[in-house]
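Re: beginner question about structure tokens

> Can someone show what the tokenized structure looks like for a real chain? I only ever see the sequence side.

Sure, here's an example I had lying around. Input first:
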Amino acid sequence: MVKKFIYLWWIATLLSGCAYSVYSNAYPHLKKVRVEAFENQSSDFEIASTLLNQLSLEFRNDGRLKLVTQNPDCALEGNILSYTEDIYSYDAANQVQDYQLRLLVSVTFTDLINNSVLYENRNLQVSEIYKVSDESSARWNTKAEAEEELIKALFRIIVQNSLEAW
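And the corresponding structure tokens:
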């Protein structure tokens, strides 16, 4: 009985140490991030606050960096160059079927400890399509859903090109 207990304990100990994470952090000294409000050069005045709130939420949910306002190790800042909503497709009756949201930003992700730019893209564009017709095959049903996914895609691009080293 004692041998069985010791054997099971060793197996449990070995297996618990075999966890794997798909996240990597090429900069382990970075623990805290500040997300700056993006300067808005688009005609949509609400997108700047939406972008700030969603990016902050994405960093918080991701968990690799703690979101702070004071004494950060790194910072994300940028400009919203344009935000557009255009007709993407029509159906056979020439009625609008889908719209496409496009967000063009200039972003800089900076390591404030080493005073170096980890990622910069002056023309980063992301887009999503949402439907306004039942016949559409677009993934998103509303503009709000497409906008949320648009910002998630922006977050993934920034993180993949700055924090993750593959």
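Each token stands for a local structural state, so reading them left to right follows the chain. Helices lie at 2-16, 47-62, 143-162.
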